[in-house]
Amino acid sequence: PVVASQPAAAPAPVAPEPPKTPEPIAAAPAPPPAAMPAEPARSVPKEFAGIYEVKPIYFDFDKYDIRPDDAKILDANAEWLKTNAEMLLLIEGHCDERGTAAYNLALGERRAQATRNYLISSGIAGERISIVGFAAERAVCTEQTEACWSKNRRAISLVKPR
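The structure assignment produced for this chain is given below.
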């Protein structure tokens, strides 16, 4: 009975607007496919490659703030991107192994987004930059030490021609 009354409560607010109920249901699946074409890098990350001129940045534990020294790296990355306007960018946000996979996946995406936001604020067009978040599945170091974990908390910028 409690379960029956909860679903009844949900349709009641929806009942006054029956046409709008199908729209959000249709719109909810629609944005993910729409986001995929808008960010083709997500579907073909293998086309992107790391290059010496565009450096990774690192993050503190459980943070996605851009640190001052890493801001200098991003400033240099932005300058390179400005002089290479034909290049697109894929930013991968990564985490160390601590935390759940779901939490780290979201944190990795926030790190990539923070990096993207910084580059946009530095004059790089947002449509040139795609992001993807990873948990700990792409670790560069597997020892269980802070020195190792700090290498895994990173945002990597990969490039490809338009």
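Interim note for the steering committee: Confidence is low (pLDDT under 50) at residues 1-43. Residues 56 and 62 are 18 Å apart (CA to CA).
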